[in-house]
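SAMPLE LOG
Freezer: B-3
Tube label: C17
Construct: single chain, 244 aa
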Amino acid sequence: MQKLRYSQYIEIPIAYDALTVAINPANNWSTQMTAIELKKMWEPAAQGKITQWNQINPAWPNEPFILYGADEDSGTFDYFTEAIVGQAKSIRKDFTQSENDNYLVDGVASNKNAIGFFGVGYYIENQNRVTAVAINNGKGAILPFADTVEDGSYQPLSRPVFIYVNIKSADKPEVKEFVDFYLKNALLLVKEVKFFPLLPRAYKTMLEHFNSKRVGTIFNGKPAIGLTIDELIRREGRLQYENY
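STRUCTURE (predicted):
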């Protein structure tokens, strides 16, 4: 696949998303997990070897867990593996994966020993069927709520969401109209799809970036693990033009 040349695109952050690690409501032992425990459960070395709850934490049951997760072609899969295992697409293979998040929710909801990961929107829609695991990344156990995503405390499973506009298309009336509408209505639009909005001033700034055709990226092709909303906006404010 050809590498994206960010010097040809206007980078526009539009929201924050969060990944939820979900368990069955009957599970009363792993309601809190550390990033280290999740890595021990999901890393490639665990395949065929780490299969019981008490292998993750001795205080947990001597029962086999059942794993569900996003499919390997999804951005959710890439981000989860990068954030938890430490390398994109690096994960054990003995789990049920699906591009259908509702299928993952159904799997977790159907067995007390099931655990899975998917977008927070599907957790929000199914809070009566599955339970979110509070993630402890060294600063206490944090649940995926709007305030914990916005203040940066839900880590490392929150991430920014972008749109990219080709600079060659930026002057087209239909493109300008779309981006203008998108950013002026983003506060409401992102909530409709269960994402978390940026600050209102951020959308005004991003519209200014688009109108001035400010190309480049703040990431250089690297994932935004652990990036808070405030830091995202600060980086965008000092974006440097990248050519590669």
